[in-house]
# Entry
Amino acid sequence: MKSIFWDTNLFIYLLQDSPKFGQAIEELRRRMLRRNDRLYTSAMTVGEVLVKPLATGNTELADRYRKLFSGPHLTVAPFDFKAAEAYANIRQDRHVHPADAIQLACAEAAQADLFITNDDRLSQKNIPGVSFFITSLSRAPI
# Structure
C-alpha cells in the first residue's frame, strides 16, 4: 500500500467528467483501489473544487463534492504547522508557485509516497524539501 496524493487538477477532471482526462483518472483510481493505496489531497483542493458549485448556487452539487471529500477512501490533509514548515522549505525555490508549494507541503506533511499532477511544469521539477516522487498523470507508475 502506498500513500498517493492527487493535485487539484485530477479531482477537477474527475468531477467535471473531462472528455480528455476523465477516463484516465477513473482508471488510475481503480488501480489504486485494487492495490489498496491510500488517496490524499489537501484542504486547498476541496476549496478549489467547491468554487464552481458555490458560485453558481448549486448547493446539491457542492454537497455531493463535500461528501466525496469526507468519504472513507480519501484523506484531506490540512495545512497545519507541519505543512507550514514544509512550505517554507519548498518556497526557497522561488520558481515553485505558492499554490503548488501548499499542495506539495501538505503531501510532505501527510508523508505521501507519490504526488500525481497533470501540471507538466511541476511534474518535471526536482524540488528540494520533498521526500516523495512527483509525476504526471500520463507517467504515474501504478
Summary: The first strand starts at residue 3 and ends at 6.
